[in-house]
Structure formats: structure tokens, C-alpha cells
């Protein structure tokens, strides 16, 4: 949740427009022979690019971004899409989720979190080549045509939200919560589109001299990270798959290995890759707030709250999502003119995009740890039972407010009461203590063990598991003196 909170903008609409749905056809595309991009495609991408960058936390700048851009443009040459070094725009996003995507016009994106998960340059080229493949095959345009015949928002809710109860009104609320932060704005590609992009990416790797097996190894790393995230959150099925835009990477590993068989290329450039990403930020950017266990702290706005027991949080660009078996919610902010009743009703209205009105039975006022607050709950018939929708808002100043929106089964709204009452302002000293994490490349010394190096990880729990996944290692892996590994430090 960045320091200037925004509502989902027109970038969301475009991301949804190119999000489409499964069931589209995939015409054949030969690596190196893609048709040139049209002026219309370039116009669509150019208009959407700055908005999407803003929605995904902004562009990450510096030497790591320059390196990602260089590798991306080099692999894009293999597509045959004109002068790829000028036709493609490659952006490293300042986002703490594992994601990569593309839009028409040659705009390719990957997050710093996904780059940090990679082990070598071939894997970076493979992920970027996969996205170049989506552009070369015009998958976004195919999905857009399919989307015109379907309810895009309905698809979003069905794919992303566990709070859908069958009623269109509740579905709309669920979609709003599911699309917190713009990390989850795009929809899944069809299986055939993913297969085609994998195949094109593997062909690009081989043609560029890279090890074509790198596509399979980076997919394996993604699968392992998804599994670890699920264990840390106490759930096996809530973690987005390559953020939501790509089908489960674990199911694609073996097929990618088969597709790489018989193809030439052996370059990985591991040491170069590690050297070039050394020092890159990892995890949450403090300017957007930080999740630590069940606590969210925003040092810029100066507040902190705790998720209820049994719930986990994911920090998005413009909101923080809270999810558990007994309910879901998010924290965000909106324009505030000093009238809390109006603010709360506007928050309810936003849940249904103004098409239907949900009105709380009453709006109560209170004080939470010295912060003026107001709240209201609306009981809604979902068609499968009643649900309680609550907006709980806090006045930080006459021009700044934040609010939770939560959904729980009817009569169970109180499950979020501990979270509402945990909101507090933090001191300047507490805010200053929130530090950014970064990737550091460590050279293994004689006598080092997996456990001893993992102990350097800047986490209070699960250090070994995080270290192993970050480096594609197993618990019985052996280390050699002089070997380079990634660790996370402050």
C-alpha cells in the first residue's frame, strides 16, 4: 500500500480488457517470424504503460533495472518483431509479489521479487522470453475478444475470490476485495496460450544460446515458492499462481523439460546474474508498508494493525488484503472531506461500483487508541445465506482517512473486532525502525553449512526454508567453498 493511496484506475480497466478468459484459440506462431506490431497495438500499450507501472508500485530504477532491460531486449530480438531493442519496453516493477506480464505494443514487465527468485540469467531470459511470446502470439488480443462475450468481472471473482456466495451483489463485493492492490488485476491465460508462450520462450532461449532448460527450472522455483508461501500463511490454495495471470507452474515443469530436449544452448551466466542483482530490494518496500507475521506497519502514514489469529495478509500497491477461513477484507484509503458518515457510505457504494446500494443499518462512532473512528455493518442476503459486510473507518486528519472493508458469514462479523481495535499510531522512532530488506550475494566459506548461512537471513522465522527456496536448494544439498548464494539482509 503505497504512500499515496489511489482507487483502481483506468489501468485496471485496461488490464481487465486484455485479461480475457480460457477457451481462446491459439494460432501457430514460429519463433523469429512474428508479425510486426501495428500502430494500434503500440497506441494501446503506450497509453496503458504509465498507468500500469503506477498501479504496480512504480518502476524500480538503478543498475538492476538496467540489467533486466538489457536481457529482456536481447531475448526479444529472437521474436522477429522488428527492431526489438527499440520496439520493446522492459520494466522492472517495484513490487513484492512474484509476477511477470505483458501488454500489446511490446511492453514487458517483471517484478523485482520474481527476479530475486531466479538463479541465473538464463532463467531471467526465459521469463522475459515467455512474456515476449505472449506479445508475439497476440494472446492479449485473443483474450480481449473472448472477454467481450463474457462477464470479465464475474470471471475475476470466480478466479480470485473465495468470498463469492452465488449472489451477483455479493459477487461484486468479492471482486472488489479480490482485486486489492493492482497485483491481481489480470486474469489467467488459457492453457494452450501458456503452452505456446512456454514453447516460444524455450525456442528464444535456445536460439540465443541460453540453456533451454532454464524455463523449467524457473517454473520449479516458482512452484516451490508458492508452496512455501502457502505453508507460511497456513493455507495450501490461497497463494496466487505467478500472481494470478499464469496457470500453476508446478504442472508445467515436466512439459517444459520435454520441450527443451533436443534443443541446443548451455549459457546460464549465473555469476553475472548474481553480481548484477546484488543489493536489489527484497520484499515489501517500507514506503508502501511492511507485513511482518500478522502485523502491518506503514512508516510513512505512521500506523500499525494486526490481523486476527488464523488470518494472513498480502500487501498490495493500493490496499492490504486480509484473508482467512472465516472471512476476508482489505485496508485502503479514499478521499475524505471530514464527514465520516459520507465516507463510510461511499465505501459501501464502491463495493458495487455504484450499480446497487448497500446501506448499513446504522453508523456508530468510537475511538480506537486515541483515533476517531466510525463503523457500520450491512446484512446482505447472498442467496446461500446471509453475510455481514462491515466498513470500519479511522480519521487520521480532516483530510486523511483509512478504512477496513470486511466480509464474514452472517452473525460472524465480530471475528474482525480484534483487528479493528488493534489500529494504532506509531511513534517516529518506530517508523524509523522499519527497514527495507535487500538481496545480498554471499560467497560460501569453508565450514559453512546450510543452517549457518540461513541464520544470516533477515527473518525471525523459517530462515532455512526461505534460504533453500531462494537458492533452489534441498535440505540435503551440499555447499562448496567459493560457491555464490543469495541471502536476504537489511
UniProtKB/TrEMBL annotation:
Gene Ontology process terms (BP): proteolysis involved in protein catabolic process
Protein name (database record): LysM peptidoglycan-binding domain-containing protein
Limits of the LysM domain: 440-487
PROSITE patterns: LYSM (PS51782), PROKAR_LIPOPROTEIN (PS51257)
Names of the cofactor(s): Zn(2+)
GO cellular component, one term: membrane
Signal peptide positions on this chain: 1-22
CDD domains attached to this UniProt entry: LysM (cd00118)
Pfam families: LysM, Peptidase_M48
GO molecular function: metal ion binding; metalloendopeptidase activity
Keywords noted in UniProt: Hydrolase, Metal-binding, Metalloprotease, Protease, Signal, Zinc
Keyword Hydrolase attributed: yes
Organism in which the protein naturally occurs: Croceicoccus ponticola
